[in-house]
Amino acid sequence: MRSCPMVSIPDLESTAAGGSVYWLAEVAAAIRREADEIAASVSIALDDRRLIPTAMGELGFESLRANLLGIADTFEIGHAVGTPLAALRVVNAIAEAHLPDRAITLVYYVGQSILWGQHIQPLILQTCLAQDQQVERSTAAYQLMAAYLEQVEASIHSYKQRTREIGTRAVEIEREILAVLDGDSTAERIGAYPLQAWHLLVAVWKLKGGDLTQEEYDRISAMITSITHGYHSLTFRPDKERLTIWAAAPDPRTATTLKDEIELCLAQESELAAALSEGEAGREGFREVFRDAEVVRRFAGQHDMRRAVASFDDVALPALLLSDRRLATRFVDFHLKALARPEHEELRQTLLAYLAVNGSIADASRNLDVHRNTIYHRLDRARALLADHLAHRPFEVHVALRLKQYLDG
């Protein structure tokens, strides 16, 4: 019997006694655990140190994890078809194809799993007994992988070092953001973000309260980053319940375009709420959009917003008027008169829709999906309840209709 390096008889006996393929599924599970640990460790870093969402991609962890999951699939296939040499053939194929990146990935993580420590030597011995040529290839692959280990260690060290650097910088950026928000900074930039740009801010939180999940955080960050691609952005997570992102636009028109795009995407989120605000260039504008978003968030927590995504200009007036609820209620009752009664909600909604489009019957009909004749009929009834108040005080009636929505909510 031909001997092979680093193999002992107990290994052979153990393998023979335990069966030839049972452990391939264990290897796959071990590799998947390694992949999950990578994702978990990066998620923890992102959460605890408030790292920017691009850290995952920047460090290459996502592609590393994808490679691992692909390798795990290979081992599971090997187990399913009952091929004891499946794992070794994967190693051979990678080594012979001269793909060092994937070889490094395979060697390091499989080496840390049960394959490298417990199963590779029995496999080589088993192959040794079966095919001399396969033994030579296996031994060469084994030696090649061993040579890669030093590169792997250096690569992993580099990843860890880069993670620490990004983590440290993220903490510094957070301090700079807080300093500008507190008015204690004269900086022109926060990292690469120019404070002299026109500011657009997006704040996101759970519609029903609670912490944002890491998946929600990553998904929303990626979505906003893709829309604002080409413009500097700044991510801030004051707590686990909120995500805040500034985007630096070159002018108000661009900021409005970006805001409309983001609002359209966020409106499709069923479990999230969002506030959007635009502000002038400079440090004060940077602070203003943050304060504006907080106004929207607090207002949303106290009143029925009717929709989950709102801009500061959507709620500024009702927020101001509702700061004195008794006065707001009196204002509504005075200007809506009998139209304020509960049974007339349909008339109020129709009149509000009509006033919101500057008195266009066609637009109101389209927005409410109601026939024009129905709009005419409802408006006549509303005017009758208001007497001549709508003709003399249209602005006050319009404001009262909007306030009534929030008071009832």
Please tell me about this protein's structure.
It is a single chain. Helix content is 68%, strand content 9%. It has helices spanning 9-18, 22-48, 55-59, 61-81, 86-96, 100-112, 114-130, 132-181, 214-227, 252-266, 283-302, 312-321, 325-336, 345-356, 361-368, 372-386, 389-392, 394-408, and strands at 189-190, 193-194, 198-206, 233-236, 242-249, 272-279, 309-311. The protein is built from 18 helices and 7 strands. The strands form 2 sheets. It has a 5-stranded mixed beta sheet, with helices on both faces. It has a two-stranded antiparallel sheet with strand order 1-2. The chain folds into 3 domains: 9-164, no CATH class; 192-319, Alpha-Beta Plaits (2-Layer Sandwich); 322-408. The radius of gyration is 32 Å and the shape is elongated. By secondary structure, it is α+β, with helices and mostly antiparallel strands. Helix 7 packs antiparallel against helix 8 (132-181). Residues 1-24, 45-61 and 78-138 have low confidence and may be disordered. Helix 11 links the parallel strand 6 and strand 7 (309-311).
What are the main properties of this structure?
elongated; alpha+beta; 5-stranded mixed sheet; Alpha-Beta Plaits; 9% strand; 409 residues; single chain
